[in-house]
Structures are given as C-alpha cells and as structure tokens.
Amino acid sequence: MGYIKDHFKEVADKQSAAIKKLIAEHGEISLGQVTIAQAYQGMRGIPGLITETSLLDANEGIRFRGYSIPELREKLPKASDGKEPCPEGLFYLMLVGEIPTDEDAGHISAVWARRSHVPNHVFQVIEAFPVSTHPMTQFCAAVLALQTESKFAKAYEAGISKKEYWDYVYEDSMTLIARLPRIAAYIYRRKYKNGEHIQPDGMLDWSANFAHMLGYDDDSFKELMRLYLTIHADHEGGNVSAHATHLVGSALSDPYLCFTAGMTGLAGPLHGLANQEVIRWIEELQKDLGTLTPSKEQIADYIRKTLSEGKVVPGYGHAVLRKTDPRFTAQMEFAKVHCADNPTVQTVWNVYEVAPEILESTGKIKNPWPNVDAHSGALLKHYGLVEEDFYTVLFGVSRALGVLASLCWDRALGFPIERPKSMTTEWINNYIAKQ
Ligand code: FCX
C-alpha cells in the first residue's frame, strides 16, 4: 500500500499548508450573500463547502480534478482487454490529484482485491432481512455491520493524536471500497438468483470482478461496469450522498458510519433512486402504449400526462446542472457502440428528443435536460440485469470512491465539525422588520 498513501500524505500536507496561508491572508473575503429564499429553498447556490475531488459547472458538467468525462475516458488507465477507464484510476486521481500510471491503478486494484474478504457476520445481517427488503436497505445495513472492522474507531477509542486521523480513515476507506462489490453482489444473488453466490476472481480488476460476482461475464458488460463505476463516483460536495458523508464525518464518525449516511441519502427517489424510477417510468410508458418503441408524439403526450398528474419526469432536471449531463452523454456514446438497436435504448433517445422542450415550456423547471439516471437503466436491461430495484446499489458502490476520497481529504486537512446556523421563521420575520 505504502507509496500511494505516502504520496497522498505529501500532497495533502502541501495543500494543508497552502490552505492555512490562504485563510490567514484572505479569510475575510466574502464568497457571496445568503438570501432568505436560499435559506428556505434547499440552500441552493450557497458556497459553503470545500470538496477537493471534483467541481461541477452548471453548463459543462462535472470535472474530476479538472478533467472532464471525455478526457477521463481518454486519459485514465484501462484494463488490458478494455477501452473504458478503470475506476481504480479515477480514485487515484481524486485522492492524489494526478492522472495515475497503469502501475498506480494496478496497485490500487491489487490492494482492493487483497482486502475484499467480507466477514461472515455481515452476510448474517443481510440474511436476517426478508428477501423482499429493498436492496438499498440491505446494502446500508451491511455497510453498517462492517463497521465492526473500523480501524479508525478502534484507534480513536485507544486514544490517538489528531494528526493521525487521516491515516486510519485512509485505511478504513480502502478496506470498505474493497469489500463493497462482494456485499452488493451478495445482495443481488440472494434476492434475484436464489442465493446462488459466485466467488470473487482475484485476477480481475475491481469492476470486472464485480460484474463476474453479479453473474455477468460478458466482456462488454465488464466495460459498461468500468464506465458506470467511473462516471457515478463523484459530483462535487453538495449533493445529498456526498454532503451526508462529509457532515457525519465532521463529527469524527468512522468511514463506515459516514458512508452509511451517504447511502441512506442516495436511496431517496430525488437522488440515486431516480435510476430505478426512470426505467420504471419508461417501461410503464411502453406497456401503456403497447409498444417498445412509441413514437415521439406518443412520448410527448405521456410526458404531459406525467406532469399533469403532479409527478416528476425521472431522470430530468438537476439542482445545479443547466445542460445535458455529460454522464448521460457518455452512456449514450457507449450505447451507440454496443447496443444501438435495443428498443428501450432507442426510447431513451426519443425521450431525450422531446422531453426538454416540454419541460422547458412549464416555465418552472430550471433544467429541462437529462441527468445521469436517464440512461443507465436501459443499458443494464440490455445486458440482462433487469432488476431495477438493484440499480441504486450500483450507483452506491461507485459513489463510495468519491465520498471516501473526500473523507480522507477532510481528515488530512483537519476540517472541524460542521455546524451551520439555523433560524426560525419568527427570527426571519424579526430580521425583516429591522431592515
Ligand atoms: N419533472 C417534473 N417537475 C420537475 C422536474 C422533473 N424532472 N424537475 C424539477 N421539477 C419541478 C420541481 O419539482 C419544482 O416544482 P415545485 O416548484 O412545484 O416544487 C420545480 O420544477 C423547480 O425545481 P428545480 O429548481 O428545477 O429543481 P430542484 O433543484 O428543486 O430539484 C431535482 C432537482 C433533480 C430533484 C428535480 O429536477 C427532480 O425531481 N428531477 C427528477 C428526479 C431525478 O431525476 N433525480 C436525479 C438527480 C440526480 F441526477 C441524482 O442525484 O442522481
């Protein structure tokens, strides 16, 4: 493990010194005003968090350490048999801030493979749930059960210096990431494949081994997993799963507790569960109209119907983005190469052609364009992973990379407990009266 961890520490120490200087010299500069509307409306647009791993531009979409998704698809290390980036490389990039060599990414892959053994009691916790339990509930509980393994919690209890926090958080994060594919695959095979589990293959990279344990050994599905686990990893710090992980971490809860908090947030339908909702919405559309490829006019009518029933069109809209999500585009490009003839994929593309204009015409939806969740389900269905309740777990396995790399940074930079000020409406009214 040594050299990557040492390198991270070196980079983090430099950044920490630069931040101390920056606060001392420029700490009084205002980043903007907070309005009453923002306080009531989800704190949208308030700059109040530091997240080093990625930055979201409303029009361009996400950049990881300055690199866009098309750039990452080109520059990150690939598996020997693949063309898509390996998430191991993205994790290195988020952690250290540099594009890794093949050797760096391979090293992370080897560490994760070595640490992937999941203790038995975690499976017992999963088994205690009725099989009908939503996979995200089983996933959150399993991560929480894994908390018995936390080196940070043990070290803290034994008494450690603040300067050492990052080290244990780093170790826990690496071990947790290493174990997630096995846990997720176990939940999948238990719920949908009669509990017929597939043993890991230590020779495969993190994504390919995950695909293998899920039961999908097709080479292009492995490629899809590499792409999927890369593009879902991080979306700067304010989204619910990233912010929840960071917030809980600020209380010095260990990475297992923090990540569970992130995952319970990801399980909400306005966040990660939207990928399940999208494909259900598309399948209902197909069923209602009696065809897998409804016309654009039929799709337009269905969108209007959804809106008139007071429901959201899942997969469209975003709190920050104002253009088509590059994560949607990356999946569309993948689909064009691997499954352009699939009727559900074609329906996703036809929805993309008609939905933005209709959503825009409502005059209230700030972003009429598709987000990451609008495409993923159709791709997974194409490869036979048809159980949409499971899709958010896939998102969660990927999201671990970003939020845990960020957690390492939070502790390496010594960030304090988070505690923004809240107010009552009475306080707001008094404040207005004094203006
Ligand atoms: N369909 C219908 N109405 C929509 C909508 C959509 N896709 N997107 C936004 N709206 C509505 C909102 O519900 C809100 O209505 P209200 O004023 O009656 O309450 C109004 O438009 C203004 O909302 P807006 O400011 O544009 O959006 P928010 O920042 O409040 O919400 C989300 C952003 C993503 C939650 C919203 O667009 C939504 O519900 N989309 C559908 C669910 C979805 O796809 N979520 C996944 C997001 C993301 F990619 C992820 O986290 O995975």
From TrEMBL:
Entry-linked NCBIfam families: cit_synth_euk, PRK09569.1
Enzyme Commission (EC) number: 2.3.3.16
Pathway(s) of this molecule: Carbohydrate metabolism; tricarboxylic acid cycle; isocitrate from oxaloacetate: step 1/2
Similarity annotation: Belongs to the citrate synthase family.
Species this chain originates from: Rurimicrobium arvi
Name recorded for this polypeptide: citrate synthase (unknown stereospecificity)
UniProt superkingdom: Bacteria
Pfam families: Citrate_synt
Gene3D superfamilies xrefs: Citrate Synthase, domain 1 (1.10.580.10), Cytochrome P450-Terp, domain 2 (1.10.230.10)
InterPro entries associated with the record: Citrate_synth-like_lrg_a-sub, Citrate_synth-like_sm_a-sub, Citrate_synthase, Citrate_synthase_AS, Citrate_synthase_euk, Citrate_synthase_sf
Protein keywords: Transferase
PANTHER family named among the record's database cross-references: CITRATE SYNTHASE (PTHR11739), CITRATE SYNTHASE, MITOCHONDRIAL (PTHR11739:SF8)
